[in-house]
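Follow-up to my post from last week.
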Amino acid sequence: MSDQVIHIIYMGSATCFILALRWLSSVPTARRGVIVGIAGMLLAVGGTLLKPELLHGGFASYRWIAVAFVIGSVIGVPMAMMPMTAVPQRTALSHAFGALAAALVGTAEFYLQAPHVSHFTMGALGLEVLLGFLTFTASLMAFGKLQEILPTRPITYRGQNFVNLSLLGAAILSAVWLVVDPAQAWLFPVLSALALVFGVLFIIPIGGADMPTVISLLNSYAGLSAAAMGFVLNNKLLIIAGALDGSSGFILSIIMCKAMNRSFANVLFGAFGQVQVSAAVQEQKTARTAGPEDAAALLEDANSVMIVPGYGMAVAQAQHAVHDLFDALTKKGVDVKFAIHPVAGRMPGHMNVLLAEANIPYDKLLELDDANSELPQTDVALVIGANDVTNPAARTNKSSPIYGMPILDVDKARTVMVIKRSLNPGFAGIDNELYYLDKTLMLFGDAKAFTTQLVKQLNESGGGR
Amino acid sequence: MESDILQNLYVFLLATFLGLEVIRRVSPLLHTPLMSLTNAISAITVVGSIVIAGEQKTTLSTVLGTVAVTASMINIVGGYLITYRMLRMFKKREPKKP
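User reply:
Got it. Predicted complex:
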């Protein structure tokens, strides 16, 4: 088929991708967005299969492509069937695959053209391979941490930032050298190796709480390396799709950073978990505790309840128990809503997907600002597995490492209940003064087990209004 | 060639701004499906991979191309499927239990 027809097919494909993202903006149109996205991909793949270079080769051209399609689909389907609690690690893994594809195509393209690579093509190739390989290993590391194959705590050592920055510097330097003198083919494996190693070292100091930002950033890199491939191949469809992904990941990382009141640099080089916990021995504070009976009674008497879920709910797989609690309370005429902090969980939107999976209507899920305007009129705020995003120190204590971070003002509700395994400080190692307030009741136990007990109590009390 | 590069840079610039505008409107409720959808879209690398795997110019390029097509295909199939699965879960009202 002629190049012009293929160009027109690609234009249609690019239009589909733009509409797909446009329609994803709200729930009612979102599914249409996915369908049109699939159409865009079919056009792109179909148009490419009809390229003259491939048609001339006859059947022989398609044998490896067909093999790859089959293997890819066989692996892709189970990856789409993972439980929703595993979505963050699945996402990290697919960033790795996307980046790998870009890097490998870049490598193949380099060795096909070497030693006659033009300066500009080499620049784009360098960027593609650098971003591709570093995103590949970084995403695999992120996967390892999220899957808890690797320790989730940040691992830091003296001079870490120096080592990382010099590695990155060396990688960029070898890319620049290649651009200046593309005949130095030996530099290419060096560049690839440096990028691969940098990807690993880059994730080592990053802790679980920073994963939402890092996953978004890796999403952006994978897109940008696809765009760079577009420059190498002089293909505008790749450039457009890559740029859309790049900007999407970029926006998400900015939202995540803002939600933690931290800069990019601070997330990447700050090693949050290493914040010095004040050495001074803290005065012995006491927290009030309650059992499931008392807690259930308080919930039953409330007019409004705001549930604040966090990563702990995901770890305990408590979302279905939370749904039962939502049902039991709603049946008794209690108005139940959910307050979702942007960085709750391990990736952007993590809590929303879990609660949607558990059949909780999405109009009950409130964003940070809406939740904060309702919390002062709320009878009970029930915190399940969230910690730092509820810590009032972010508003009041200038010396706190999370000072300035926008939090959910659960301490403004009339009563606060916190389901937690123990009083141990959360991920960031910061004590939460919320737990020692007079209006706070600590409900010690596993999130799922305790919530199930609450539901049992509520159902046994029978009646309803 | 020179004019191609400039044209491509224009396309990149415009697509980036368009992306920023479109994505800013996506509700935080849908940030996870957004990420899995953009993940599927970034598997557009399949376009470059197919050509390399199909042309079979050298053994190295054929192997690299085939692996790249496989990796892209995983993301296409997995990415769209899981996004659709997630979106099906977002419901406004509790469905009536049979």
